[in-house]
């Protein structure tokens, strides 16, 4: 039996041994073969397994040496613990998520972050349309173990007065410019924070050569927006709002190869409500023959426009001897307060529905 001089040394040796064992046992799952179609997607992420085993180890050690792990047990864990997966040789995904301050912002960002934690080699560009960075958002991103980039871009003033505002364009363009300036390989995807993503769509879009497309559920009364595919080729589009669009698709329904994007220096997204996707894809200069239908020739719905219910701003917490000096002092800082001050106890703000959805 080996006696360690100090508990610290003992802890270090145990951690190194545990890590080595885990790498030996599970290291092989890190070298994923490029298998776009049938990749198993419900595998327990290596990271979660790692955390679980380390925690078990800690508990066992704690029983033997009750004080040995007290400092690490108290340590602040990252909000998306474990760390994002890096897999050598796998094309990176540049995921642009436009966002803006509202009651649902942090819940939606949390949901999207936790989806992306299950995807390898992601660079997550969170681009906020706000007059100043939202502290709750930037601290969430800083605490996240994902590879995140925070960007901020406001809608130009001239569009602010319009009845139908081209929301999310300025901040998506900021993401697009970042990708142009910093990326050379991989794939670009616009992932709004209010959608639901099946992990399989990320693995398929990773291999996009020019522009790939796939169905998006819960769009318009048709319940789906999708290319129409016959014998492996896109022959049309099924969408509840075709208008005069050449590519009537949803923002979440296509991905673009970064090397291909870089050959189209003038490609951009127009500030035209309802025509953002069509304008952007047209500016890439492709034809229907160039479109790669994913999700098994568009027979699977692997993305949904979930559309979270709008919530009103929080009613302020009363400052009285029941609330003061309690957790509510902290909770009040977490509640969404509309800077325009529209929160009231009785009237519910009418939602104005715009665009096609
Ligand atoms: C898509 O359809 C084409 C033509 O029928 C077929 O060759 C191809 O294997 C299909 N792809 C998938 C992934 O199912």
UniProtKB/TrEMBL annotation:
Biased composition (Low complexity): 53-64
EC number, as in UniProt: 2.4.1.135
Topological relation to the membrane, as annotated: Single-pass type II membrane protein
Gene Ontology MF: a single term: galactosylgalactosylxylosylprotein 3-beta-glucuronosyltransferase activity
SUPFAM superfamilies: Nucleotide-diphospho-sugar transferases (SSF53448)
Annotated stretches, region: Disordered: 53-84
InterPro entries to which the protein is assigned, alphabetical: Glyco_trans_43, Nucleotide-diphossugar_trans
Active site: 277 (proton donor/acceptor)
GO biological process: carbohydrate metabolic process; chondroitin sulfate proteoglycan biosynthetic process
Pathways involved: Protein modification; protein glycosylation
Record: residues binding Mn(2+): 194
One Pfam short name: Glyco_transf_43
UniProtKB keywords: Glycoprotein, Golgi apparatus, Manganese, Membrane, Metal-binding, Signal-anchor, Transferase, Transmembrane, Transmembrane helix
Biased segments, Polar residues type: 65-83
Glycosylation sites: 297
Subcellular location: Golgi apparatus membrane
Catalytic activity: 3-O-(beta-D-galactosyl-(1->3)-beta-D-galactosyl-(1->4)-beta-D-xylosyl)-L-seryl-[protein] + UDP-alpha-D-glucuronate = 3-O-(beta-D-GlcA-(1->3)-beta-D-Gal-(1->3)-beta-D-Gal-(1->4)-beta-D-Xyl)-L-seryl-[protein] + UDP + H(+)
GO cellular component: Golgi membrane
UniProt cofactor(s): Mn(2+)
Similarity annotation: Belongs to the glycosyltransferase 43 family.
UniProt name for this protein: Galactosylgalactosylxylosylprotein 3-beta-glucuronosyltransferase
The organism of origin for this protein: Scylla paramamosain
């Amino acid at each position: 039996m080996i006696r360690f001089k100090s508990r610290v040394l003992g802890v270090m040796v145990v951690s190194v041994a545990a890590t080595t064992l885990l790498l030996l046992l599970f290291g092989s799952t890190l070298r994923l073969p490029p298998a776009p179609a049938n990749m198993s997607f419900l595998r327990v992420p290596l990271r979660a397994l790692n955390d679980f085993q380390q925690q078990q180890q800690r508990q066992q050690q704690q029983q033997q040496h009750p004080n040995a792990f007290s400092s690490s047990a108290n340590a602040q864990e990252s909000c998306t613990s474990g760390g994002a997966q890096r897999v050598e040789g796998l094309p990176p995904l540049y995921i642009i998520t436009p966002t803006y301050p509202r009651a649902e912002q942090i819940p939606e960002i949390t949901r999207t972050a936790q989806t992306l934690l299950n995807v390898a080699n992601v660079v997550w560009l969170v681009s906020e349309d706000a007059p100043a960075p939202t502290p709750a958002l930037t601290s969430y991103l800083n605490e996240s173990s994902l590879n995140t980039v925070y960007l901020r871009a406001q809608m130009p003033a001239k569009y602010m007065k319009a009845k139908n505002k081209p929301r999310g364009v300025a901040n998506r363009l900021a993401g697009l410019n970042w990708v142009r300036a910093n990326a050379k390989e991989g794939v670009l995807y616009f992932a709004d924070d209010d959608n639901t993503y099946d992990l399989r769509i990320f693995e398929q879009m990773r291999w996009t050569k020019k522009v790939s497309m796939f169905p998006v559920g819960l769009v318009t009364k048709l319940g789906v927006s999708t290319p129409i595919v016959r014998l492996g080729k896109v022959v049309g589009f099924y969408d509840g709002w075709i208008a005069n669009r050449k590519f009537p698709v949803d923002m979440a329904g296509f991905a673009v190869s970064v090397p291909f994007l870089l050959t189209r220096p003038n490609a951009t997204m127009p500030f035209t409500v309802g025509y953002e996707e069509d304008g952007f894809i047209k500016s890439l200069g492709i034809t229907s023959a160039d479109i790669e239908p994913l999700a098994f020739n568009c027979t699977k719905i692997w993305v949904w426009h979930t559309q979270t219910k709008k919530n009103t701003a929080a009613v302020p917490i009363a400052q009285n001897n029941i609330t003061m000096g309690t957790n509510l002092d902290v909770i009040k800082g977490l509640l969404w307060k509309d800077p325009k001050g529209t929160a009231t106890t009785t009237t519910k703000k009418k939602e104005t529905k715009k665009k096609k959805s």
